[in-house]
Amino acid sequence: MDTIASLFSFITWPVSWVIVQFHKLYGAIFGPDTGWAWGLSIVSLVVLIRICLIPLFVKQIKSTRNMQVLQPKMKAIQERYKSDKQRQSEEMMKLYKETGTNPLSSCLPIIAQSPFFFALYHVLSAIASNKKIGVIDQSLLDSARQAHIFGAPLAAKFMDSAEKVDALGASLTDVRVVTAIMIVMMSASQFFTQRQLMTKNVDLTVKTPYMQQQKMLMYIFPLIFAVMGINFPVGVLVYWLTTNVWTMGQQMYVINQNPTPGSKAQEQYLGRLLKSVTTHGEVRGRTRRNTVKRIVAKGPDRNDIERKFVVGLAKLGLAPQEDGTVVKSDTAVAEAEGGGPQRRQQPKRQTKAQRQTGAAHQGEAKDGDSDESETKTSLQKSTARDDKSKPAGKTASGSSRQAKSGQRKGPQRPKHPSKK
Description:
Layout: H1 2-7, H2 12-30, H3 35-52, H4 54-80, H5 85-99, H6 108-128, H7 138-146, E1 148-149, E2 152-153, H8 162-167, H9 172-200, H10 209-229, H11 234-257, H12 264-280, H13 286-298, H14 304-315, E3 318-320, E4 326-328, H15 352-389, H16 396-402
Antiparallel strand pairs: 1-2, 3-4
Helix pairs in contact: 2-3, 3-11, 4-5, 6-11, 9-10, 9-11, 12-14
């Protein structure tokens, strides 16, 4: 660790200068030789560095989301060019270029603050060795060696010997108890930060090897920091614990205000937004209007959570607009599902037994219809024959009068005179 820290010795002067400036401020409040003055100086150094790294953190969030979205396409490329690694790499780079994704962006905050971390380690190691470094002169060096945080000197380590701890004016038990607690807190904050990202801000509809990799890192990183922590001075543990807490709070804010589409955090966020619209009847805040604007722009490509949100607005009689606002609309319910009219419902699929029963009924109906049609046809034919057999000029009424009982039908012969 000392060898690595020496590589960043060029940045020890600005780091020591920033610490001394903060020490002057806090020394006037708590006293120059107190652990509060020196400890808060380190905390303020972390806050200053992390504020400067906010643009990189934003890039990290965007890169992480893009990597999650691209995982299915990346997996397809890997399977397609399984035997051609060069073509596989070319297609991957082409995909990154088309989507504007940089895989290294997710590591930028850690890479950017690494020089400051090792520079601080170098400064605290010099204080433990009673060596002047940067702008820290002998008087500041003596003050820093007297500073204790809960009984543990800033420059003491968990693995230090009892003689070295005694030289710093502390007991070995106090140093090990304080450093052990800080190591546990540092590892726990790292674990909680990664777990928060995996359980709330990941699209649960996409199952890729990337998610499995992140889940493994959730358990590996805390173990790595726990092992490395026993060789960190108390001041470095303060630095790393502070930066973990800052990262956790920053990530929590981003998850609550701008969650990943399809994640559990988005469901919670849109639930709060729908409740706010229900209460106030409008979308309040520019961030929330931008969220509604993005959902409207997606149209039928919305995920289930976003469609549920639009349906919730429709039940209130509201329709989201392209500018992120909502207006009252009578057709909101019909257009809620996909940004357009409701789809025609498909007929319910019947079972095999139902289809056979229906076919039998249809066959019986056809048989009845055929019998009825045959009957009608025969009647029509007989009527036509009767009409042909009738002489011209005879009407239906005349033929009916002639058809009396006991008489034959048709024309009658005149009777013989003797029979009158």
